[in-house]
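Thread: Newbie trying to understand structure tokens

Hi all, I'm a second-year student working on a class project, and my supervisor (Dr. K.) asked me to get a predicted structure for one chain before our next meeting. I've only ever worked with sequences, so writing a 3D structure as a token string is new to me. If someone could post the tokens and maybe explain what I'm looking at, I'd be very grateful. Here's the chain:
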Amino acid sequence: MADHLDLHTVGDLLHHYPRRYAERGELTRLSDLPLDEHVTVVAQVADARVHTFNGGRGRRLEVTITDGSGRLQLVFFGKGVHKPRAELQPGTRAMFAGKVSVFNRKRQLAHPEFKALGAESGAEAVEAFAHQLLPLYPACKQMESWQIQQAIDTVLGPAGHEETALAGLVDPLPDSLREGRGLATLPEALRKIHRPATKTDIAMARDRLKWDEAFVLQVALARRRRADAQLPAAPRKPVPDGLLTAFDARLPFTLTDGQRRVSEEIFADLATDHPMHRLLQGEVGSGKTMVALRAMLGVVDAGGQAAMLAPTEVLAQQHHRSITEMMGELAEGGMLGGAEQGTKVVLLTGSMGAAARRQALLDLVTGEAGIVIGTHALIEDKVQFHDLGLVVVDEQHRFGVEQRDALRSKGKQPPHLLVMTATPIPRTVAMTVFGDLETSVLDQLPSGRSPIASHVVPAKDKPHFLTRAWERVREEVAAGHQGYVVCPRIGDDIGDEGDAPKGAASPSPEDEAEKRPPLAVVEVAEQLIKGPLSGLRVEVLHGRMQPEAKDDVMRRFAAGEVDVLVATTVIEVGVNVPNATAMVIMDADRFGVSQLHQLRGRVGRGSAAGLCLLVTDMPEGSPARARLGAVAATLDGFELSRIDLEQRREGDVLGQAQSGVRSSLRVLAVIDDEEVITAAREEAAAIVADDPELTGYPELRTALDALLDKEREEYLDKG
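---
Reply by user tm_fold:
Sure, no problem. This is what the structure looks like when written as tokens:
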């Protein structure tokens, strides 16, 4: 039980809450029994017989019951025979509850629960039994729900005496908060969630237990924010008429209001003497990179250096290319033809040649390079900075807090931190996952961006739709544009980026579509070159290619020398080719909602309208088709991220974003419980401001220690 369900202590067991509750339901007449449903009946035993089989080794008890309207057979096997055999004598009146099945064309209940009714048992006892709420627990093969219930019953003791068993519990909620918000005590909440008399009991218990989870987590985050605010940092104020001014002067467009507003928030943070911790969320293509670059230039103006951390080499190279293009001669500081207030912009990735790498490291340690863009290679011990003032992390959900902190530790003082994500995060998730960061949102697209039309292409139901999809790609190319074809897998079965989920045994159309391995880049490219896209310049791009080859393909695609790029999700983030207008996503049902939204953001980046076609074999009416329909129906990433969260468990969304703390959420649902999270954040901030060490709250301290095991404690204390 300990390993399979992660239940090690009595406390773990008490906080293992029922997933749902079964009701035995209304009393049913034997003549009206519905198949495959849980029923409760009151009837009299007419007959009870034990049969043996397997040469006398197996035993089966068959009991026939009647209620005047009909008859029903009950069966019990093996060791389960003894109790009913003793208690269900002919003439006994009892209540029976179980699921109706059919055997030999007769309806029966196998191993039903039962309760004998004495002569004095009136209608009330029958009603109480029928309406009792039966807790069903998250279980596993090694530990069934009813065994967990037995264990919890043992801990709680006899009904009516639970308070005694629960008396020593540590209650993390301060009394003033609990009473002020009218919440149940912890013993009462635990009693009601495990042994509810009514549905109101369950609601009351859940309200209280949600508060525990939200509050303890928000206290942990509030303490981290406070610790960060105590750290010293060098204020970085851009000098007038410096690099930033020169850069703004060369911009061929004006910044959007959103970009200006967010830039002001960032420059205000950079001017303070404690480190900025800001999360910048922006839709795909809302101009986050521009905002981040201006912040980096401001820091260089102030005499510091800025580092941008990207999750993949393709993205780091892309950022390096687009930033040097945007800066022009300003990116050639110290070089012939470079502007006098310019600086060097260097790239640092794991696959660079030794000489280029040596030069980049030298430029960083001397301060010659004001801006460095790189992958995890930036975090290595060998990398040293002259004066690191700002760290920009792109696509935060790919990086843990530890990596963030490793890079921050390279500054003489903690550098300022700007975290960017194009995955829109609903406000509650931002408060729960990135609660130690202030949030800025860019929610308007720069002018000149085109709308993207999205359509679902049901390849199996309507093959001619797929034929038309390839015609549309040819039409876009004929009009001078380019396209992407995205596949979930690389091919050649080389332990792929996205391997096939194992299909189930039953051959429903959905299972058939699931069982087939996901389409692969290598094979799809070959079929397209021979078939529907013959004559076009088709190239492949995936994560197993050599970095030089990847960069070469991307460069030629950006230059317009490739018509169609068949790729894996390496293009998901940050790839910017304004001339690419069409995207066909094969096996689109294999991707998550936010991933599809990210991929789609690669088209429609120029003046021509974008087209995104979501190809699927999934049948109409399946959940996968509904999900694709939702993506096709809206371009609003925040709306999609809500859909995504509602369809997946929080754990998937919150899981890797920070260091495991999120697995503590059992009853708190980040989408539905916005009010609780917001209120808990306010309460937590007030308590931490008043008593940072929580000396007046020993129980809260204990709960925090339980939430933050050693690794998490380090994560929260690292500043």
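A couple of things are worth pointing out once you decode it. Residues 137 and 144 are 8 Å apart (CA to CA). The radius of gyration is 32 Å. Feel free to ask follow-ups in this thread.
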